[in-house]
Write a structure and sequence with these properties.
Layout: E1 3-5, H1 6-13, H2 17-25, E2 43-45, H3 46-55, H4 65-71, H5 76-84, E3 91-95, E4 98-102, H6 105-114, H7 116-125, E5 130-131, E6 136-137, E7 141-143, E8 150-153, E9 161-163, E10 170-172, H8 173-179, E11 183-184, E12 200-205, H9 209-221, E13 227-232, E14 235-240, E15 243-245, H10 250-259, E16 260-262, E17 264-268, E18 271-275, H11 287-300, H12 304-323
Antiparallel strand pairs: 1-2, 3-4, 5-6, 7-8, 7-11, 8-9, 9-10, 12-14, 12-16, 13-14, 15-18, 17-18
Length: 324
Amino acid sequence: MNYYTTKEVAERINRSTVTVHKYVQEGKLKPVEDIWGGHHGLLFEKAHIDAFIANMPDEKPGYTLSEAAKTLETNRTTIQSYLNEGLLPYIKHQSRGRTVTFIKENDLKEFSEIYEKRIREDRLKQRQFYNRKRKEAVYQLFSSPSLPEARLFRKGLGEWHFIIPQTGKELSYNEGIYQYQLSPVYPVEFGKRIGTPGYAKINLPLRYSLTYQFIDLLYQDAFVVNMYMDILQDRMIILMKDHVFYNASEELAEFISSRLEEGKSYYKQGILAIESEQDTLSIRLSREIKQWIKQLSNEKGTSMQDIAREIIEEKYRSIHSHSI
């Protein structure tokens, strides 16, 4: 038989029969005339339906992994980790002849509200503020004979560009480099990781002179591997390992101390120390437990210390929630 019924068309295009009738009303599908009247319902030529399928609009049931990553300002790998952990619901759907993973809009929105802290922490760890290939970072100082001060900037996964602090003017990256011949005043090195536990958390206002001063001091004196940053509206959130700065002004030290949300700071005669409040806890574990923790850390793309901390904190919350 060279014809499809309405039900068969619905199955072929992966839509409901109601949608098939809608497509007919819109002129997207054209049924044939049953001149003999031997069939109840509509009939469609197979060749017509096959041609429609080849050119039919791709009506996606949600976000692709790339679209979800862009919405949450993260990457596909992180989104996939949420799916693997069962935190974010997803569906499999046929799209253009292949099976594709989709995330419904409502599910993504609900996930972003429930796991806001986790999303932010994961985004921080990606170091989107740093371009490792060019050794350039957000708010790094650039200069040229025509522009004595320009700041490199990027929000989330957006394009890199320059901000001129004095005027607030913005320049594209290529415009700043090639037209104004901007060059970095200092390199920003990725460096080597230190083993001190925890991070101090600093909340700084964007486009503020003392913020610029601290960033210059931080980039020239510390390594990127020991810090994380995130841009949230008009704020810059910095997480940093313990560090001592030897050329800090008293004004800058007071400013940073007032912006510390987690951790502690000390200042004396130009020396500014910023420390986490987290203490080191050493414990002995069996080989089997260590291997299990290592496996979990590999699956989640984090350190064994972070996994152990999560397990202990979860146990602590579980005990105390039952005692309330």
